[in-house]
Amino acid sequence: MTILFKKTAVALTAGLLLSGGAFAGEQVKVYGKVNASFQSDDVNSDSKTNVKSNASRIGVKGKVKINDELSAIYKIEWQVDVADDENDNFKARSQWVGLKGNFGTVLLGRNDTMLKLSQGKIDLFNDLNGDIKHMFNGENRLDDTLTYISPTMNGFSFGATVIAEDNKKSDGKTGTSLALMYGDAKLKRSDLYAALALDSDVAGRDTTRLTVYGKLGDVKLGAMFNSSETADGASDGDGFLVNVAYSMGKTTLKAQYQDSEDKAQGTGFSIGVDYKLAKNVKTYAFYSDSSLDDGTDASHLAIGMEYKF
Fold first, then answer.
1. What is the pLDDT of residues 98-144, one digit of tens each?
2. Which residues face 264 on adjacent strands?
3. Where are the domains of the chain?
4. H or E segment and range at residue 104
5. Which three-class secondary structure string do you get for 234-280?
6. Which pTM value belongs to this model?
7. Topology given in CATH for the domain delimited by 23-308
8. What are phi and psi of 166, to 5 degrees?
9. Based on the number of CB atoms within 10 Å of its own CB, is 294 exposed (0-12), middle (13-18) or buried (19 or more)?
């Protein structure tokens, strides 16, 4: 019954939005991406082939102008598994409503914390097996959040997320996630991006994260330091990441290395190549390998395709 209701709700929502039922002056956009890979996964010498959906998603976002200085905005997004069990392939992602104006942006609902948002585009293997979330704490998308993001002033911006006590991971405490950012995360308006972020009582942990990356011609270099501990101080750990990407026309070569004593204890590295078929379509191949202190050794060799719409 839950699965049927979930599918029906998504279908009805999409149908209403696509039917042109938006109010006059309202901007509505349906967007998403399909990312799938065929890969060979080897965990502790147990090898198997797999077709994997890599955070494929569909969403609806929009805004309506209230006056010259204020707009109402919203986003409703679901993760869709295009490769596995068809009976349960929808999962809620960021879903919020808010206001945007000269004062900045305020968002209310389910959202990434500011610490997670502060990573920008540093993760060269985001949504794949080499994603930083597998080794670092702090990659939180949480219910019951209120987020404020300031306008950019002299290259700097500030963001804060408050997580209400009602959140199931809050243990009855109000959590906060703060970030100070400099530059353009997409490196289109600046050659450097940097961010310092702090979590306090977020999903039971306190986390500090420093992110820096930039471009020099066709080369992009990045580094991250992540330090996390449980809110009661019982356990802690830190780690770092370094990566490099080199673009040659439609082809991008990339490599990333992590060393962690945080969420996972051990090391991991990934190498890969992306090839653009069109502005919104690419094919790719990657190899990821991790060796953890608990004796787990895993490797993943894959080819895949991503289509954004």
1. 999 999 999 999 999 999 999 999 999 999 999 999 999 999 999 99
2. none
3. 23-308
4. strand 104-112
5. CCEEEEEEEEEEEEECCEEEEEEEEEEECCCEEEEEEEEEEEEEECC
6. 0.91
7. Porin (2.40.160)
8. -70, -15
9. exposed
